[in-house]
Design goal:
By secondary structure, the protein is α+β, with helices and mostly antiparallel strands. A hairpin with a 6-residue loop joins β27 (664-666) and β28. The structure holds zinc ion (ZN). Zinc ion binds next to α18.
């Protein structure tokens, strides 16, 4: 939704790649005889490694483009049931199902789109290994994933021709590559013998892990603690090792594993302080706030001097209150959205009076369960995943990282910047914490044959291509905050274009269907999406918002076709039923009206005449079909009256703006009131402010106050909250 999908500029690349793909296909099944000799491959790799390192220091941003291969499924066969294969047996463009390959890493890793390294098999043959969706360098060093001397096992290897006509093993699924321990039985014996340091007691492993913890080498520590545990230490030592490993798991964001290591939920008769603390921490990050509160209460009662525990308890209680009541300190949220970068806010999701139901034609949808008023909070959802891209070009170019471009040759769809990163972010999140995966995977209802197996060899199976397909229909583009966007619009700072570079997944909001005449709107405060009603709703009414903002010129049918549904709202019905001649007439009148609006001394009379003519082209009233083509000109008419000092007409004209947008109202000076809400556009804040000022001039103070309240309600819908309203509009006096 409203995300940057413009890949036309990379058209040439796409065409080249398609040719490559065809050429590669023609070599399917071939065992290449022209593999580079190991020394040559090694030398070339190390040269480009040095070249890359030089580029990284130059602080320049690079476009890292990559091509998504035809979808293939991750390996779901346990390693024990796979058969070995060697490099000289690999066939091009083939998924070697039922096979595995063991490689010793020969080079340091190199980051491109993904991580590259050279690996050798037991024969001494060498192959380029290309691993996608691995964590970014600032989260996990590439040398921690592959480095010289490490031994890795690739399941069901996929051997292919690369864009640079090299041969490589491509690993798209995180679960398809396993790092082997030094004493793993899958390691060829000739490699085993060279490894001197194999312990048969757990203590040396534990000591090594403890030392890694001190150096903050969390992944390394996890491996050694695991090795220690596998050697079967006595129960009291086992408990300590697991507790330590829990901390390393917390540091690497593996909350499921951390929780399991603490002994939760039983903890035993005398729970250790650290075990309770770490369990509460894991639960908090898994967003299980009430359970986190329960553990922290026990901790606080048993160890009252633990100040950090007291702090964490209060923090967890706040989150629990947020998710139960929908009461947030919105000013604090706005401050955080402004200062935390990327804007991952630490707040809970509130699901208001809404529930999911099947709809007749549009699949699932959300419906309100009780009466709500315009501006009421329906949902305040924390992103499942967010890929942050700075909004302004100057911030982007200030060394804020390379831009990734992913192109799917099958669908000819591109994922640019944030979206390409989002696939990796989601894959990592689900791989590290399988318990949260269903929130995302349940969104997919297409025909991609996803594997039903979610674990193999004790590890989660994460299908990258299923993520890509699920994302395509559920991703939202987002500003870093709707307030910042609104302020920029107020200062007439034009946005470069109307698409956002940051994007994310909000699973609850994903269930909301589109309607051009919607009943709700979304706004963003950092990575929190706020959904508020745009009109009064009755139980059973559907919650809908815009995927794309309707515009009088746009053909919504085309704009929405990517989502695979046809909007049947009154606006779209009208567009369908209106004859071509009438549409032509409207366009002509609209052009004449725009010309009048832009004239140096616009005449309200001429404009009103044209507006009347436009009105006459409609068969139905504006409360059914809002007048997107002339409400704005009507607002200008109101301003012209105000400039002439005719406040009576200014007020009446502004009321007409509301009517054109589908509102029903009492437009008398003393009794000004909205009976039914219409389309809530950002500009309505100004319109209501204008009406308020006009009513003050007309000495209708009570009505002016009402208009001011309506402006505040629109602000709440557009920005997400109204606690910052006075500050944003402090120059406007009522
Ligand atoms: Zn529509």
């Amino acid at each position: 939704m409203d995300v940057d999908t413009d890949i036309d500029k990379h058209f040439q690349q796409l065409q080249d790649q398609k040719r490559m793909l065809l050429m590669a296909k023609s070599r399917k099944g071939e065992v290449p005889r022209d593999r580079k000799p190991p020394q040559v491959a090694y030398h070339q790799f190390m040269m480009s490694h040095m070249f890359r390192a030089g580029l990284a220091q130059s602080n320049e941003n690079m476009i890292r483009s990559a091509f998504v291969p035809p979808a293939y499924q991750p390996c779901t066969t346990p390693i024990m049931k796979l058969q070995p294969i060697k490099i000289n047996q690999l066939q091009l463009e083939t998924h070697h199902r039922g096979r595995y390959i063991v490689l010793k890493v020969m080079t340091p890793p190199m980051r491109m789109t993904g991580i590259l390294a050279l690996g050798a098999d037991a024969n001494g043959d060498i192959v380029l290994l290309h691993m996608y969706n691995q964590e970014e360098e600032n989260v996990r060093e590439a040398t921690d994933i592959v480095d010289v001397g490490m031994i890795v096992l690739v399941k069901e290897p996929y051997y292919k021709l690369t864009a640079s006509k090299d041969y490589a093993l491509r690993v798209d699924h995180l679960s398809d590559m396993v790092r082997l321990n030094e004493d793993d039985t899958m390691i060829p014996p000739q490699w085993m013998s060279r490894i001197s340091e194999i312990h048969d007691s757990f203590e040396p492993h534990k000591a090594k892990a403890d030392a890694s913890m001190k150096k903050e080498k969390w992944w390394k520590a996890i491996r050694d603690y695991t090795a220690a545990i596998e050697l079967g230490p006595p129960p009291d030592r086992l408990e300590i090792i697991k507790r330590n490993r829990a901390l390393a798991y917390l540091k690497t964001k593996q909350y499921d594993a951390a929780l399991a290591d603490t002994g939760w939920p039983g903890f035993g008769p005398q729970p250790a302080e650290k075990a309770l603390f770490r369990a509460a921490e894991a639960l908090y990050h898994l967003r299980r706030f009430s359970e986190s509160v329960a553990v922290l209460e026990t901790l606080h009662a048993t160890f009252p001097d633990n100040a950090q525990a007291t702090f964490n308890l209060e923090r967890a209680q706040k989150r629990h209150t947020e998710e139960e009541t929908g009461c947030y300190d919105f000013k604090a949220l706005q401050r955080e959205a402004e200062h935390i970068c990327p804007p991952h806010l630490d707040h809970a999701t509130y699901i208001g009076p809404i529930k999911m139901k099947e709809t007749a034609y549009k699949g699932r949808g959300l419906f309100v369960t009780k009466r709500v008023k315009a501006g009421d909070l329906l949902l305040c959802e924390k992103a499942f995943a967010l890929a942050y891209v700075p909004e302004r070009d100057e911030e982007r170019s200030a060394g804020n990282g390379d831009i990734t471009l992913l192109i799917n040759i099958e669908t000819e769809k591109g994922f640019m910047g944030g979206q390409a990163d989002l696939i990796r972010i989601i894959a990592q999140k689900m791989y590290l914490n399988p318990s949260v995966a269903p929130a995302f995977t349940s969104l997919y209802h297409g025909d991609y044959g996803a594997t039903p197996i979610t674990f193999v060899d004790g590890n989660p199976v994460v299908d990258t291509f299923l993520i890509e397909r699920t994302m395509a229909l559920n991703v939202f583009g987002c500003p870093n905050s709707s307030l910042a966007t609104h302020k920029r619009a107020m200062n007439n700072e034009s946005m470069v274009d109307n698409v956002y570079h940051s994007c994310g997944i909000w699973p609850q909001a994903s269930l909301i269907n589109h309607s051009c005449t919607c009943s709700a709107r979304r706004s963003f405060i950092g990575d929190m999406m706020v959904v508020r009603a745009t009109r009064d709703l009755e139980p059973g009414d559907e919650v809908t918002f815009w995927y794309q903002i309707p515009h009088f010129k746009a053909n919504m049918r085309d704009k929405l076709k990517g989502w695979g549904f046809v909007c049947d709202c009154a606006l779209c019905q009208d567009a369908k039923q209106t004859k071509a001649t009438v549409k032509k007439e409207r366009t002509k009148l609209r052009a004449a009206l725009t010309e009048k609006c832009n004239s140096p001394v616009p005449s309200h009379k001429a404009m009103e005449r044209l507006i009347d003519k436009l009105e006459a082209t409609y068969a139905v009233s504006p409360d059914l079909v809002p007048r997107l083509g002339h409400w704005d000109a009507q607002m200008q008419v109101a301003r012209i009256y105000a400039a002439k000092g005719n406040m009576d007409q200014a007020f009446k004209s502004a009321c007409k703006v509301l009517v054109f947008l589908g509102f029903s109202l009492d437009d008398s000076k003393k009794g000004f009131e909205i009976k039914k809400w219409g389309m809530v556009l950002d500009y309505l804040i100004d319109a209501f402010m204008f009406i308020g000022s006009a009513l003050i001039e007309l000495k209708a103070l009570a009505s002016a106050k009402k208009a001011y309240q309506y402006a505040k309600t629109v602000y709440r819908i557009v920005v997400g909250e109204d606690e910052t309203f006075e500050k944003t509009y402090e120059d406007h006096v009522f």
